[in-house]
Amino acid sequence: MSWWDTDDADDEPELDESSIRVRPNRKGNRPRTKTRPEHNDAETARVLAVDRGRYTVLLDEGTTAERRITASRASELRKQAVVNGDRVRVVGDLSGDEGSLARIVGIVERTTLLRRSADDTDEVERVIVANADQMLVVVAAADPEPRERLVDRYLIAALDAGIRPILCITKTDLADPADFLSNFAGLDLQVFTSATDRMPLTEITAALVGHDTVFVGHSGVGKSTLVNALVPSAQRATGHVNAVTGRGRHTSSSTVSYRAEGEGGTGWVIDTPGVRSFGLGHIDPANILRAFSDLAEVAENCPRGCTHLPDAPDCAIVEAVETGELGPTGPARLDSLQRLLATFMKPTQY
Ligand SMILES: Nc1nc2c(ncn2[C@@H]2O[C@H](COP(=O)(O)OP(=O)(O)OP(=O)(O)O)[C@@H](O)[C@H]2O)c(=O)[nH]1
Ligand SMILES: [Zn+2]
Fold first, then answer.
1. For ligand 1, is residue 171 a contact (CB within 6 Å)?
2. Residue 307 labeled ligand binder
């Protein structure tokens, strides 16, 4: 359990992914495909949903032969987790006919892997979603109150995984998000604002087209409402609040992929109920700096082991901001970087 997340602990067992545990991969995010030669005839499919050992996968995506089939996982994959967004190699009955069952024999090399550890010091991590290239962080302007450190943690997890973060502030009919948003002014972050009767669906859909976007957010922020508006067929359950505790409850407990249709094409929405906490045990702070390419360049002149935090001696970034070398947005950029680094390095202070 995470140190800051005690009130959410009761929801943890509902996570479909909770049974999936993999060892940290020292070589980075890219496990290799392990398709055996005898599976030359295997076809590649996209994993849309995972439910107790049964995988819904999409074959021949985007063609007239496109179909959803059910598959199990071959024992040769051993403990390797197959997660939503994975591209897998499937063999066997690929007809998709009623009662048919195909077999997953390999996982195609992943481009990104969104992981979390159970808490900040835990070496064991959970794989959440594979191959997402964007993360839409959904946060409410009020009810529940937005917490910038929570958003920081989402951003860190995204940047570490090489996933582009996007922010959507919901419930702007209840509060003005300007103050909250000022925390992120120095980030190169696309921001949408949404209210019940003013949801920017065309704009968000345009950002989704051509991408695999994982949606994350704390319970009750209106994420399901947003997913349903973007993908009417999704029918995510909404608005369930536990009468006893008064807290939001997860009504749908597993990660599911939906196709959003826009003018210029389609995009995948990967909705993740329950992914509200990212323990950051596996994060490499160098990846956070790398996401600020302008600052990363300057940091090459930092002393070895520089933390780039306000108390770091002779930090080249701090100096460059002071001399104005990084331009008018320099201070905000540095502030954002330092916030993320501090959230990562000194989590117990928040
Ligand atoms: N005022 C206001 N309420 C909203 C807005 N969007 C959603 N809500 C309400 O907020 C509540 C929670 O919305 P959900 O979509 O269920 O939230 P969620 O983030 O999916 O929460 P879980 O299903 O618990 O994960 C519901 O009662 C919605 O009607 C909004 O823009 N403004
Ligand atoms: Zn530095």
1. yes
2. no
pLDDT at 11: 33
| Cα–Cα–Cα angle for 268, 274, 276, rounded to 5 degrees | 95
Q: State the residue for tokens 């009810």.
A: 143
Pair 267, 227: CB distance under 8 Å: no
- Choices 3.20.20.370, 3.40.50.300, 3.40.50.720, 1.10.3720.10: CATH for 112-271: 3.40.50.300
Strand partners, 267: 260
CA of 317 to the centre of ligand 2 (A): 5
Decide which of 3.40.50.80, 2.40.50.140, 1.10.540.10, 3.40.50.720 is the CATH code for 37-107.
2.40.50.140
Query: Whole-prediction pTM value?
Result: 0.81
What distances in angstroms separate CA 263 from CA 63, 207, 209, 226, one per listed residue?
A: 18, 11, 9, 18
Q: What is the ipTM of this complex?
A: 0.97
* Rounded CA separation 151/168 (Å): 11
Q: Per residue in 271-303, pLDDT tens? A: 987 665 666 767 788 888 888 888 999 999 999
67 three-class SS:
strand
| CB contact at 8 A, 249 and 225 | no
Q: Judging by beta carbons within 10 Å of its beta carbon (0-12, 13-18, 19+), is residue 262 exposed, middle or buried?
A: middle
Look up tokens 């090489």; give the residue: 162
Considering only CA atoms, which of 173, 225, 236 is closest in space to residue 201? 225
Best of 215, 238, 255 for a ligand 1 pocket test (most atoms within 8 Å of beta carbon): 238
Cα–Cα nearest to 136, from 155, 118, 150: 155
What is the reported pLDDT for 31? 53
Other CB atoms within 10 A of residue 175 CB: 16
Q: What are phi and psi of 8, to 5 degrees?
A: -105, 0
Cβ(247) – ligand 1 distance below 6 Å: no
**pLDDT at 320 (0 to 100):** 96
Closest protein CA for atom 29 of ligand 1: 239
The share of the chain scoring above pLDDT 70, in percent, equals 78
Q: How many beta carbons lie within 10 A of that of residue 263, not counting itself?
A: 8
